[in-house]
Amino acid sequence: MSDELDKRLHAFRPDLADKKLEGKIEADEFIEGELATICVPSITLRSAPDKELGVETEALFGEEIYVFEQADGWAWIQLLKDSYVGYVPESAIAIGFKKISYIVLHPRTFLYPEADMKKRPLACLSMGSRLDIVDEVEGNGIRFLITRDGQALVERHCRHFRAFSGPDYVNHAGRLLETPYRWGGSSAFGIDCSGLVQLCMFIGGEYVKRDSDMQANTIGEPIDPGEDYQYLQRGDLVFWDGHVAIVEDNKTIIHANGYTMSVAREPLLTAIKRIAHLYGQPTLFRRP
């Protein structure tokens, strides 16, 4: 049965597994994950506790996780937002529940030690970071949000967690233009093609899976784009084997790609022709 479960989305090893999987797989021990949050601006998840391994995905500040094990400086975790499983350094997690009331909406913003823009920032946070806010104050004409730890962020760079921006997630992709491409990246510090889709749709109020193959199987419905792609609409997704792009209009896409090594806007037909020798023709079009 374990061969049928996607190891990216289910926490199981021969010696230890998520209690939710009991009866579905064999393991020496089954435990319930302990709720925690990410306490650093961003951290990469790896498939094993080894800093030399490639990046699987990325978790952001304030993101909720389940912790299944802490050993030898590493934590084995699962992200709540998309069920992705991997290893992060123990120093990147804070055990316990944290109330999330705001998210960062700006591509990037600074976390200050107090409500003063002249103070040296403690960190830089990416779009999509989650915040536990307990107060609002004004300093030198700037409105700040105050975290439970007494730190401050510019209020206009954030949004109440439940005040979703609406269905046009393409706007957020446009705000991330020129963000560097990074394999496995899911933040405004560096991002890949499916990470861009996931982050922008999250800001728009929708949780979707992480990798392009998962997105191709789960987001919206397949559509017929038309012989000349005339039926494509803003927000549709174009999938290749191993790549995904966001339709801005039926002539233009936005995607994080290895050609420009950035999030870029590109004519659809130009992209199809250029990508063909690497990934072939588009394999699927979906409408969220």
Q: Can you give keywords for this protein?
A:
288 residues, 6-stranded antiparallel β-sheet, mainly beta, 5-stranded antiparallel β-sheet
Question: Could you walk me through the main structural features you see in this protein, from its secondary elements to its overall organization?
Answer:
This protein has 288 residues and is mainly beta. 12% of the residues lie in helices and 37% in strands. It is built from four helices and 25 strands. It is globular, with a radius of gyration of 20 Å. 38% of the residues are buried.
Question: What is the topology?
Answer:
Layout: E1 17-18, E2 30-31, E3 34-38, E4 42-46, E5 55-60, E6 64-71, E7 74-79, E8 85-89, E9 93-95, E10 102-104, E11 108-111, E12 123-126, E13 130-131, E14 133-139, E15 142-147, E16 152-154, E17 158-160, H1 170-175, E18 186-187, E19 190-191, H2 193-203, H3 212-218, E20 221-222, E21 237-240, E22 243-249, E23 252-257, E24 262-267, H4 268-279, E25 284-287
Parallel strand pairs: 1-2
Antiparallel strand pairs: 3-6, 3-9, 4-5, 6-7, 7-8, 10-13, 10-17, 11-12, 14-15, 15-16, 18-19, 20-25, 21-22, 21-25, 22-23, 23-24
> What class do helices, strands and sheet pairing give?
mainly beta
Report low-confidence residues grouped into runs of 5 or more.
Answer: none
Strand content: 35-45%
Measured as a percent range, the helix fraction is 10-25%
Main sheet: strand order = 20-25-21-22-23-24
In angstroms, what separates the terminal alpha carbons? 31 Å
The pLDDT mean sits at 94
* Biggest beta sheet summary: 6 strands, antiparallel
Order of helices and strands: EEEEEEEEEEEEEEEEEHEEHHEEEEEHE
What is the global morphology? globular
Total of DSSP H or I helical runs spanning 4+ residues:
4
Counted beta strands = 25
| Radius of gyration based on Cα positions | 20 Å
